[in-house]
Amino acid sequence: MVQAAALQRNESGIETAVGVLKQRFGDRLQTGAAIREQHGHTTTWIENQSPDAVVFPHSTEEVANIVKVCAAHKVPVIPFGTGTSLEGHVNAPAGGISVDLSQMDKILAVNVGDLDCVVQPGVTRADLNTHLRDQGLFFPIDPGANASLGGMAATRASGTNAVRYGTMKDNVLSLEAVMPDGQVIRTGHRARKSSAGYDLTRLLIGAEGTLGIITEITLRLHGIPEAISSARCSFPTVDAACQAVMMTIQYGIPVARIELLDQMSVKAANAYSGLDLPETPLLLLEFHGSDSGAAEQAETFGQIAEEFGGSDFTTTSTTEERNKLWQARHDMYWASLQLRPGAQGISTDVCVPISRLAECVTAAQDKAAELGLLAPIVGHVGDGNFHTLLLIDMDNPAEVAGAEDFVGWLNDMAISMEGTCTGEHGIGQGKRPYLVKELGAATAYMAAIKSALDPDNIMNPGKIL
Amino acid sequence: MVQAAALQRNESGIETAVGVLKQRFGDRLQTGAAIREQHGHTTTWIENQSPDAVVFPHSTEEVANIVKVCAAHKVPVIPFGTGTSLEGHVNAPAGGISVDLSQMDKILAVNVGDLDCVVQPGVTRADLNTHLRDQGLFFPIDPGANASLGGMAATRASGTNAVRYGTMKDNVLSLEAVMPDGQVIRTGHRARKSSAGYDLTRLLIGAEGTLGIITEITLRLHGIPEAISSARCSFPTVDAACQAVMMTIQYGIPVARIELLDQMSVKAANAYSGLDLPETPLLLLEFHGSDSGAAEQAETFGQIAEEFGGSDFTTTSTTEERNKLWQARHDMYWASLQLRPGAQGISTDVCVPISRLAECVTAAQDKAAELGLLAPIVGHVGDGNFHTLLLIDMDNPAEVAGAEDFVGWLNDMAISMEGTCTGEHGIGQGKRPYLVKELGAATAYMAAIKSALDPDNIMNPGKIL
Description:
2 copies of one chain form a homodimer. By secondary structure, chain A is of the alpha+beta class. Helix content of chain A is 38%, strand content 19%. The first copy, chain A, has 17 helices and 18 strands. The first copy, chain A, has helices at residues 11-25, 33-40, 60-72, 125-132, 149-154, 162-165, 168-171, 200-204, 238-250, 263-273, 291-307, 319-330, 332-337, 357-370, 397-416, 432-439, 442-453; strands at residues 29-30, 53-55, 77-80, 97-100, 107-111, 116-119, 137-138, 172-178, 184-186, 213-220, 222-223, 227-234, 257-261, 282-289, 311-316, 344-347, 377-380, 385-392. In chain A, the strands form 4 sheets. A 7-stranded antiparallel β-sheet of chain A has the order 15-12-14-13-17-18-16, sandwiched between helices. In chain A, strands 5-6-10-8-9 form a 5-stranded antiparallel β-sheet. A 4-stranded mixed β-sheet of chain A has the order 1-2-4-3, with helices on both faces. In chain A, helix 9 packs across helix 11 and helix 14 runs antiparallel to helix 15 (397-416). The radius of gyration of chain A is 22 Å and the shape is globular. In chain A, 59% of the residues are buried. Chains A and B meet through strand 9, helix 8, strand 11, helix 9 and helix 11 of A and strand 9, helix 8, strand 11, helix 9 and helix 11 of B.
């Protein structure tokens, strides 16, 4: 594991707060080593920094209560959803209280006529979609993991559908949140747009719990399209695949998903998911629309693909075949780990203007090869976002150093291409130095906002800034 | 005119700052009464509060220079685009310097492959679209007025296309801004999505110049669709028209525009634009897509409209007829004023969940009738946003009082329906009491952010908060 800086602990404050909360929450406050460790754990190479206690609130009022106790004793509060974040977001570098929101999992309202719903933060995206299915609605954001919607909002998550439906920032209408002083606010209501004051909704989305705890989320929903079809197409090179993506976006084809798997990823998918895809770069697509609309999109894409040397273009609209293909895409993390059993997977997350994508992906492949790293690539290429999964033996210091070099080099390269070091994973602990490189002077104003709203730095300290 | 509260003036600071800036900017700083008055003027019923001087910078560096001088002497800075805002946004209640950005009107880059561009804040939306046309691209946000893109970002503008393309918050990738201390920041780069830190882009969008001056905007562009067609359909009642809108949105028909004109607005349009529309509530629509896609959308809408008693459903894809229809829509403000020559038009801007829209519009019609006010209504009904244009004799105190009653009553009603007092016009001076009603405790955190970034309250004081 890579070390994360520890912050000064407020021992006496923590002891008092844990005592007070234990009295109030009884068995819903846990201090066992295993549960604490589990709440510091994330799918990351950063060392675990466990909280001192984990508390399971059932209501906004209880969250406010917890935050007020922690505020009174200047004790860190770390919101926890499902623990699927990747940059140490739920670590507790100064100790404190992990607030596990998984038991706040009620769908409070579904307004079919308005295409919106109101949920508690612990509802997962899969649970919500299961609940919505009978009503002909769905929530499109799909980061892969079955994350909680509160966590997805907090990290400004996106994933495979973002090319058409946007990210969490585009699909949250408003929030209820407990602020660092324990006050409960609403950032808006259910209007589909508003120009009423500062956009606190978007400020909290992506703030990674450092400005408050999200306790209720009003989400935009979409009608399940009449037709959903999938396609796949193989390309001779990553460059050819990226050219096809760029042309698809320029043509305005409203693709619902357009995903790249590089050659190494295709090999991994074939082995893990029992497929027999040609082992060259692959695009996986999904089209949403009316029957004829989805068919037309697929046809137009087919023509574009042909222009760039695409081959083996296959479409399918049966649910079973479609699910098999997308299951393989979702399983890419596990499939890739099988390329090197026992290795730790370290995911990068750069996002660049699409015109620079081919160059950036190709350079990443070359750099990994040069460093001797096994590093399959998948990407949400309609947005210019891709993930290199470095497969690292963490007991080999030279490899770990190589991985650190690679991550830094790739982040710097994306920034130099007018891109970002994080398209969707967030800053957490791991990317803090790159945030400064990317946004420079702007980070001072982020820090000013943080100090103004959370003067004692109790909300998820050590993250982002 | 309705009076706006004046704020304490810093006379000596203003005198010094004007003197220093006059030396630096020469003829590009103006202090004549006419130009000062023009820069306090907005299309509003709020009295004019002129700035002490108007300065015309040509570069970000010059804007930073102006702000630094004003910061040193604690003098208000009021950014000015085209002066088409509606809630006293450019008034100078404490005097100070109006920064007119109209000469910062360069299109700095168009990246066709990435569907984005970089513009200075003084570029208007019409100028940008003229520039883009040859490249097959367009920028969709259309608030009606030919506003500057800087002003549109500052007020989180939207308009007729928002139902499909979103608002300014959805179409700005990143900003460059001069902050209250004169520092220049970038809030992001050209990646289509990012999870890098607090979303300062969205914080500045809609901040109405109270947190900084936007000096460069990176915008998302869209390909001009293969086919653009329009339709109109008359309905027996506002309720029937709204039901058709709701069903259209639920069906997921990706309408590019769906606008309501109530009976009184249709009469005004007939008279002003020489049309002969049936004088009942009307929906105007626009469809974007492939040839067959746009046709299919129109056909599906036609079926929905029929279900709700729609009649006289007419589609057109010739540019000339289409332009005539939309020109009439754009001219509604002037057409409505002709219903009562000499009257002042006062526009409301509520936005409610679509399921409440018919009820809200009908109640607004009834209330206006009850108060004896002439008040045609138009609406961006796909978003639940509509504007009542009160036609008021400002020399008649009883009428002005009635208008104030109406505005307050309507804002309260929208808020009670989980909506907002402003879908797109912003808070400015006029809606400050309603912001507090709408968002309550949240406004305290807006104030904390404002104080943190602008401790001397020099950036557009007296607006929003």
